[in-house]
Amino acid sequence: MSANMSARRPCSSGTLIRKACILALSVVMMAVAGRSFATQLREKEPVVVGPGVSRVARLSDYFERLKGSPADTPVYVMEGSEEGGSTLIIAGDHPNEISGTLSCIMLIESGAVLKGRVFLIPFANESAFTVSHPGEATPARYHIQTPWGVRWFRFGDRWTNPLHQWPDPEVYSHYPSGQSLSGFDVRNLNRCYPGKPNGALTEQVGYAVAELIRQEEIDLTIDLHEAEPMYPIINTIVSHQNAVDIGVIAAMDLATEEGIQIGNEISPVKLHGLAHRELGDYTNSLVLLAETCNPIQDPCRGRTDETLLLTGKDEFILKAYNLGLLYVPYDEHGSPVDERVGRSNSTILRLIASFSDLYPEREIVVSGFPRMAEVMERGVGAYLQNPDDATR
Amino acid sequence: MITLAYYLFCGYIVILLVRNFLRCRNLYDEILYAFAIMPFVLRVIRLK
């Protein structure tokens, strides 16, 4: 408290006017910031339910406790006319990894399933879509140009919104392994599988996803992610040990048929909480995870804006590549969103094809879903429908 | 319980900052308090 505050003399009219002006300025700034935060919290991008979608369920349909919570999220179900196997495609575990969410939305809006069933969760950690990472100056939204206009999408954080789950423990003890993880990872959905029904909100989401797999008897689960170029697990398929053959065949086909180089890893047995480990261990599904390259996630990046998110061009990352610090090829063309989404699409299609080859009695056939070459030629926007027709 | 305590604490800080803002006579202190209060108000109304 400053010394002049203790002087108990009445305010002059000039002082009162000055205080009123400063307070008004403060209120205006709070209103502007508050409006921005409120929009981020409440406004969701429209998703067009395409003709291939049979029904739109909710994650809470599989775990009642999520009903009405900020973590409940849509589950799009596409069913073929012929019986076959079933697959679940999860995206948005980490809402700052956008290619998986866009792949899901392209399939929902433009694709079809001819045989079997496909379940899609494009916004798996719905709460994390309502917040940006503090201190990183990341954009709250990004925009995709389409032939008829512009579509917008939320760019969220890696972790559940602290408004919805707080406080973090000093150390997060993963359930059921008991492995100690960083306290903040109790809000990281891809560290919370297979979930805990009476746990924190993010653990409940993990449990709901596992319940969906169990109740719908999902044969194949594909979890879509992106990673920073300086992270070794990138442009890679990570397979649970029960699904290694599917991952290897898909990777070989991607390389030989489409010229897409993709790595292959087996899920580490002692790295707990991740989809490819826990959903594989605690459900009967064959589980794989795929990663593409997203430069905006890299700590050595320069200016952090929507352009970087969509083009993946960054001079500092290029410099890091020239110094041999990256785990992916990188040049002045960057890592554009069309390439990343196309890579996710091709990976999904190859994984489904590999599974169908190995388990022909559980075959799944998807159509109208473009591969990487087509997406790179026409752009992601060519496969997105007009939001004026959207329901969500 | 911890969340409730957190919001009560934030509300208490808002009251202190408003009180100091009203009592101080120095322009720079007034601006300081008017700016410092913003994140606490946004927390109390659960926007941030």
Spatial shape of chain B? elongated
Strand composition percent of chain B: under 5%
Record field, number of beta strands of chain A? 13
Ends apart, CA distance between termini of chain B:
19 Å
Total domain count of chain A: 1
Largest sheet of chain A: 9 strands, mixed
Q: Spell the H/E element sequence of chain A.
A: HEEEHEEEEEHEEHEHEHHHEH
User: Per the principal axes of the C-alpha atoms, what is the gross shape of chain A?
Assistant: globular
Report the biggest beta sheet of chain B as strand number plus sense, adding barrel if it closes. none
Give the N-to-C terminal Cα separation of chain A: 52 Å
* Major interchain interface with per-chain residue totals: A-B, 23 and 24 residues
Overall CATH architecture of chain A: 3-Layer(aba) Sandwich
The fold-level CATH name of chain A is Aminopeptidase
Bin the strand percentage of chain A. Answer: 15-25%
pLDDT < 50 stretches of chain B:
none
- Characterize the quaternary organization of these chains: heterodimer
The overall strand count of chain B is 0
Helical/strand content category of chain A = alpha/beta
Helix content of chain B: over 70%
Question: Please, could you describe this protein's structure?
Answer:
- The complex is a heterodimer of chains A (about 400) and B (about 50).
- With about 400 residues, chain A is an alpha/beta fold.
- Chain A has one domain: Aminopeptidase, CATH 3.40.630.
- Helix content of chain A is about 30%, strand content about 20%.
- Chain A contains nine helices and 13 strands.
- In chain A, strands 1, 2, 3, 4, 9, 10, 11, 12 and 13 form a nine-stranded mixed sheet that branches. A two-stranded antiparallel ribbon of chain A has the order 5-6.
- In chain A, a hairpin with a 2-residue loop joins strand 5 and strand 6.
- In chain A, helix 4 packs across helix 8.
- Chain A starts with 12 loop residues before the first helix and ends in a 14-residue tail after the last helix.
- With about 50 residues, chain B is mainly alpha-helical.
- Chain B contains two helices and no strands.
- The mean pLDDT of chain B is about 95.
- Chains A and B meet through helix 1 of A and helix 1 and helix 2 of B.
